[in-house]
Amino acid sequence: ADGRVYNFSPGPSTMPLEVLEEVQRELVNYKGSGMSVMEMSHRSKEFMAIAAEAEQNLRDVFAVPSDYKVLMMQGGASLQFSAVVLNMLGTKSKADYLVTGQWGEKAHKECNKYGTGQLACNTKSSKFTTIPAKAEWKLDPEAAFVHYCANETINGVEFSYTPDVGSVPLVADMSSNLGSRPIDVGKHAYIYAGLHKNLGPAGMAVGFLRPDFADGSKELKICPTYCSFKTTCDNSSMYNTPACFTMYVMGEYLKYTKRVGGLSYWAEQSDKKSELVYGVIDGSDGFYQSAVEKSARSRINIPFTIRGGDEALERKFLDEAKKHKLYSLAGHMSVGACRASLYNGMPLEGVATLTDFMKCFMDENR
Ligand code: PMP
């Protein structure tokens, strides 16, 4: 592990060293099978056991109700933007989107390929820095579903509650905060997340699906077989060759999550880590600034500017940070500035190193 840095990447992102080391130990000869998981048939008994255990661990860790389906699909969260619509629109033509950031905006755009994505709210004009109160949402009782993004990775806006949308099925993109706190799966018709933040390497998405959406009754005719929730469920997420190695690493990460105390442990860590960073921002007298309204601040992705968006100074910050082993702190290419992503793999001491550096940098560059 020599030479590892504190990696604040928004995803793919840092993972617990223990998980990487376990994968390394098992890499070339998995449990005496004489081969790597990378080399195994997905129909082998070893791999079937890995997949079944991974699914069970998803169920355990996320307290998935027993009648819900667990889906493991390739293509990441972006493909889920389309899969949601292709499997959930049914005979309806409209769906509602609560757009509070760039990922929700993309999901909404995808809906318009197959139906009508309605904007129940859209905070783009105020640069995605708030979550409007429910009274301001324009919810259509005839919508096939309401979609929200629980944590906007680029803009740093996080729902601290499950939106109440009445009887319309609720769909959540939890790509960047799934695993960071306990969730109420039963309040959702579908929750999905790309893997590469708190669950493992890139290449897959997981989904928790209410059973009435697993029977194909609301699937559009044009839905590609690979995107079909029914096909995925009927084949236990093995309709085709899955992202085997990614699935295996996810399983190891989930086992680790169980060992450290599950989601309540990660929730505690997320609170502590984000409080450290926001503490420095708020105590900096405007040297560091977070544009997001306090009630909507993300515990996971913290975008910030330096001295009112001084780009030269932000570049200097990013360069000097590396001397302290603090990497990948640049903001998303669409917004610039800085961003610290605090996924589960980022230890508290990494965040303390960051906040110490932020304080020193401020003292030297005020
Ligand atoms: N939704 C959110 C909240 C994300 O953060 C991302 C990726 N950063 C996506 C969707 C898209 O995921 P993918 O790259 O896996 O398609």
From TrEMBL:
HAMAP family in alphabetical order: SerC_aminotrans_5
Cofactor(s) the protein needs: pyridoxal 5'-phosphate
InterPro entries (UniProt xref): Aminotrans_V_dom, Pser_aminoTfrase, PyrdxlP-dep_Trfase, PyrdxlP-dep_Trfase_major, PyrdxlP-dep_Trfase_small
Listed name of the protein: phosphoserine transaminase
GO MF entry, a single one: pyridoxal phosphate binding
Location of the Aminotransferase class V domain: 5-353
The gene coding this protein: serC
Gene Ontology biological process terms, A to Z: L-serine biosynthetic process
